[in-house]
Amino acid sequence: MSDSLTYIKRIGADTSSLFEELAALRIEVFRDYPYLYEGSLEYEKEYLRTYSRSADSMIFSVYDGGKMVGATTCIPLIDESKEVIEPFINSGYKLDEVFYFGESILLKPYRGLGLGHRFFDEREKHALSFGNYKFTCFCAVQRPDDHPKKPDGYRPNDKFWLHRGYAPEKGLVSEFEWLDMGKEKPTKKPMMYWMRATLDNL
């Protein structure tokens, strides 16, 4: 299957050409645990405009034929939203030294093909290309171990992230609000950051 896939990379304002497809893909993938996200295309496209407003953002997407089946995003931390930036300010980080990795999402049939590593490779290469970022990071939702929607046999991505050189920074936490599947009102969820020093900073 991997031989039939094609890839598109867009930078800065050009990322907007991918928003319609990426918004739909985010809604589909994030319905699953642990995000359980009840999304809307209108909200998604507004959220994604953050990337088109940043000159140095990137979206890297994967296609099978004409269908987007996966994508990953990254952006300078300083160009992100207040909710993302705030814990870094409070912890004393210099915002212009951190590159933020957004989502990495794949439809289920395309998992296990090495695309998760490809996504990290592409984002890390993009961040390093500027020569001034000391850290790359991303965040992940924290759900309680006894969450009623947790599937049997669920395995988080922690081992994969650790293998990539990332470690959780427990002092760095944001709260994002969204509507869970089957719920009537949005609630806030803790999002913990994982960080890695860039190769030039090791």
Short synopsis of the structure:
With 202 residues, the chain is an alpha+beta fold.
Attribute tags:
alpha+beta, 202 residues, Aminopeptidase, globular
What does this structure look like?
It is a single chain. With 202 residues, this protein is α+β, with helices and mostly antiparallel strands. The protein has a single domain, classed as Gcn5-related N-acetyltransferase (GNAT) (Aminopeptidase, 3-Layer(aba) Sandwich), CATH 3.40.630.30. The protein has helices spanning 19-29, 41-52, 82-90, 115-128, 158-163; strands at 5-11, 58-64, 67-76, 98-106, 135-141, 167-178, 187-197. It has a seven-stranded mixed sheet with strand order 1-2-3-4-5-7-6, with helices on both faces. A hairpin with a 2-residue loop joins β2 and β3. α1 (19-29) crosses α2. The mean pLDDT is 95.
The CATH topology is what?
A: Aminopeptidase
**Count of spatially separate domains:** 1
Quaternary structure of the protein: single chain
Overall 3D form: globular
**What's the count of strands?**
7
User: Tell me about the biggest sheet?
Assistant: 7 strands, mixed
Which CATH class?
A: Alpha Beta
Helix content: 25-40%
**What is the mean predicted local confidence, pLDDT?**
95
Order of helices and strands: EHHEEHEHEHEE
Count of DSSP-assigned helices: 5
Low-confidence stretches: none
Beta-strand percentage range = 25-35%
Under CATH, the homologous superfamily reads Gcn5-related N-acetyltransferase (GNAT)
Q: Which structural class matches the secondary elements? A: alpha+beta
First and last CA, distance: 36 Å
CATH architecture: 3-Layer(aba) Sandwich
Cα Rg:
16 Å
Trace the largest sheet across and list its strands: 1-2-3-4-5-7-6
